[in-house]
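During the reporting period the student researcher (J.K.) took over the structure-prediction task from the postdoctoral fellow and processed the backlog of single-chain submissions. One of the processed entries is reproduced below for the supervisory committee.
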Amino acid sequence: MLRAFVAVKLGREVESRIIELMAQLKEARADIRWVGHEAIHLTLRFLGEVEEARVAGIVEALKARVSRLHPLRIETGGLGAFPSLARPRVLWVGCKGNGLRELGEATEGAMVGFGFARETRPFTPHVTLGRVRSLRDWDKLRALIAHRATESFGASDVSEVILFRSTLTPEGARYSRLGSVVLEGGGRG
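J.K. obtained the following structure tokens:
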């Protein structure tokens, strides 16, 4: 068994700006487990534990639905926390773009069609920056977040969807590519 998720990677310029942002937010010294720089991505669908024998089928299911979509441009910007800034568990940068909802729906449809249970939470496109471990020095960090709440971090052109493996380690999750699907256009997902 392996932990897997479907995601898109952002361009180097956007990644660099998000890494810069994280460095500035770390100055608050809040109790956050920050995401590693190589782990910056936008998750389309978390799959959880899957059998290794199902990986090729998952990629094919994605290809059948997602490859028909056109490449898209994703804008990143805005800072926040789930479920809220008052009760934070996850810090995030928001994502939006024409075709992003459609990509999320196509990914969900492919996974439900392959036998995964439908996701119960609404698709909220974001890049996770870190997970809140405690509220120690949270007020300092919340002030920094409020100051930059509407800031833009740039746009990325996205032309592929990636199936990743997530390996949990004491230093945090490590990701490796299991397969990918190119957004070729020419139809609806």
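The committee noted the following: The radius of gyration is 17 Å.
J.K. will present the remaining backlog at the next meeting.
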